[in-house]
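DM from R.C. (forwarded with permission)

"hey, sorry to bug you on a friday — could you get me a structure for this? deadline for the figure draft is monday and I only need the backbone to look sensible"
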Amino acid sequence: MIGRRASSSCLVAGLAALLCGCGPRIDLPPIPTVEIGGVDPAVREQLDAALRAVESRPDDAEVNGRLGMLYELYQYPTAARVGYTRAATLAPDEFRWRYYLGRLERVEGDPDAAVATLTSALVLDADYAPALAELGEAYLDRGESEPAAAAFRRALDVTPTSVSALLGLGRSLAAGSDHGEAVVVLEKALARAPAHAPLHYALGLSYRALGRTADAERHLTIAGRAGPANPDPDPLAAAIAELEVGIDRDYRDGKQLFLQGRFPQAIERLQAVIEAQPDHAGALSALGAALMRTNRNAEALEAFGRSVELNPENIDTARPYALLLLRERRFAEAEAQLRKVLALGGDHPDDHHILGATLMGLGRPRAALAEFERTLELEPEHAEARRALVQILWQQSSSAADDLAAVPYLERLVELEPRHLQAWTVLGGVRESSGDLEGALRALDRALEINPDLQPVIAKRAELRRRLGRRTDVP
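My reply, with the result:
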């Protein structure tokens, strides 16, 4: 995306008054123009053509609205608001121009105007769920949780599966201090969009307010990573995106093809972007990911490497780059990328899991153990980290300098893997040798729960009971 704000903020003065349909007739604001510099030639031509169309047909709502759409697309929001205002004034019964305007007013930090515009738009189409959700967000921006909740509930009446409406309702309930009900609503939304970062963030805040610190930390940590965009469909917003041309369009299409699993087509589109703009770090990163999915690892490494050189602080490139380096057994380089991710604020469970695997490759099991432990702190059900940690703990307990040094490894191992028969048996032995007969007996009891027929363990248990002065003829 390209662009900058138009400098003449006075262009938007009185826009809300133009839409109210009351009072004396107000002339249209001047046709909006912007300074365009350093953009893709295809984008420049598209904007110039749209402006010429408005200049030749200034009273045509369609061409004015299209100019507003293009200005919004290429990030000229002030000029876009003027274009939408002209279109809405020329076609007062056309819902989309009011929706586009109200949506942009909210994003640009003008919730009062957004509430007025979106309310007028919903008079024309009361059942467009994205507009209801936008109205709810505008009320939240004004600090009005009750009308916000009402708007989000209305959106859910229209589209019960709307993630944005559920998120907004949850945030509205939290704003009214009803964090218990907020959690119920937000967890329902999370079931539909488990990787949507704003949901995790809102949940983290509500769990923190409820005193559930561990749950709060888990969700806030997940929220710290980029997640997929809101999955709710918005055909009118999609219509703006479809206007994109040039390199930006090819880049967006390439990423979309990747998300659809059409990796060869994504590679072709992204390579076209790089051919036109060799230093496009985003396209190089996306190309690396697509090449990686097609097992073209050498080419993927080259693409990731170039992207990292151009943008060394991009966590979303460093992560897959590190994973591929690990797969290629280039452990030192993988560690360097992962350390950079952590230094830049990354703290995702997979960051620590991949670093742990990398450290194992470098022959540093104790350092790896700490990374796998951190993985499980962040995501207790991370199966791969759990398996790796169990393996390291068993190895470390086996190679400990003495029995006492093995105990913490074994205790943590059986905590993670309660049915690890060998660990319970060995733990019984090392506790006995350290003089902890009660602890040894408890460990052997657990071993016999797993396998009641282990004769050596049965004999050792009987011996321990005799030494403790207990009867040996009872379980």
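R.C.: lifesaver. Residues 245-311 form a domain with the Serine Threonine Protein Phosphatase 5, Tetratricopeptide repeat fold (CATH 1.25.40.10).
me: no worries. The first helix runs from residue 15 to 19.
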